[in-house]
Amino acid sequence: MTNDDGIYSPGLASLADAVTGLGPVVIVAPDRNRSAIGHALTLDSPLRAEEIRKNVFSVDGTPTDCVNLGVHGLIDGKPKLVVSGINLGANLGDDITYSGTVCAAMEAALMGFPAIAFSLDSREFTVDDLARTSAVVDYVVGMVLTADLPQGTFLNVNIPTGSIKGIKLTCQGKRHYGEGIVQKIDPRGRSYYWIGGANPGFEDIPGSDCNAIAAGQVSITPLRTGLTSESGLQLLAAWPLSFTMD
Ligand code: MN
Q1: Is the pTM of this model over 0.70?
Q2: For residue 131, what pLDDT is reported?
Q3: d(Cα 108, Cα 146) in Å, to the nearest integer?
Q4: Gap from CA of 159 to ligand 1 centroid (Å)
Q5: Cβ contacts of residue 186 below 8 Å, gap of 6+?
Q6: Per the domain annotation, does 165 fall within a domain?
Q7: Centroid of ligand 1 to alpha carbon of 76 (angstroms)
Q8: Most buried pick, 77, 159, 197, 241, via CB within 10 A?
Q9: How many folded domains does the chain comprise?
Q10: Containing structural domain, residue 19
């Protein structure tokens, strides 16, 4: 189990609670919040892992580092399943490409393990959310453990806040991020910038993850590690694929 909000996130604790009883659990998670770190891997500095409790490792790296270190260094044998989250904040549409939560699951899928990313559409965790997310985690993990996912396929699961109005199989939607960059001046007179709006909107695409969450439904999107564009291949097939160098 890992996440991108860091080892002390209540989302990670709730995910641990939800899967306790399914089998031995090993947590390998970043020592601090590494949200929006994407699929980054640490290659130019050493990694340290501190076992802060039995089978709970705090790592000074990224979520992808944690999956690598967990699978290849810290746990005995191979995991039956890798779960990531529960992220505080939904990972919908374009978010997926930035999300350390989702990319940790992608890393596990690249290694050939079944993997699920869980996110909650909220920046905080209430007692009510705890019960709801547990039920969702229980259901999805149970399904994945009984039915093999295709190689290279992993699941992106988003959970709404408030009462759950069903569960939907979805495709990746499309976010509208704010385009504004906030520019400020620091005490030494130099500019600094903040990227990213507070509340991104989304395109109204029926069947998408964004629409499901907006409708109060749990969204389950099967994603894949292979990124080749089929329509791109068809288009580029008409290219002559030769060029001259002067
Ligand atoms: Mn996060």
Answers
A1: yes
A2: 85
A3: 18
A4: 14
A5: 192
A6: yes
A7: 27
A8: 159
A9: 1
A10: 10-172+203-228
Report the DSSP pairing between strands 182-185 and 191-194: antiparallel
Say whether pLDDT at 196 is over 80. Answer: no
Cβ–Cβ under 8 Å, residues 89 and 119: yes
Q: With b meaning 16 or more CB within 10 Å and e meaning fewer, what string describes 175-188? A: bebeeeeeeeeeee
Q: How far apart are CA 24 and CA 136, in angstroms?
A: 20
Q: Give 27 Cα–ligand 1 centroid separation in angstroms.
A: 16
pLDDT band, residue 197 (cuts 50/70/90): low
Query: b/e string for 122-144 if b means 16 or more Cβ within 10 A?
Result: beebeeebbebbbebbeebbeeb
| 185 falls within a domain | no
Identify which of 116, 211, 214, 104 has the alpha carbon closest to the alpha carbon of residue 156.
116
CB 158 within 8 A of CB 91: yes
- Ligand 1 (ion): residues with CB under 5 Å are 4-5, 35, 87
Residue 178: per-residue pLDDT: 76
Q: Does any domain span residue 20?
A: yes
Tokens for 239, please give them.
């290219």
Whole-angstrom distance, CA of residue 116 vs CA of residue 137: 9
> How many other C-beta atoms are found inside a 10 Å radius of the C-beta of residue 78?
9
Q: Cα of 21 to ligand 1 centre, how many Å? A: 25
* Per-residue tokens: 66: 């944690």
Amino acid identity of residue 14, one-letter, is: S
CATH (domain of 88) = 3.40.1210.10
Please check whether residue 245 lies inside any domain of the structure: no
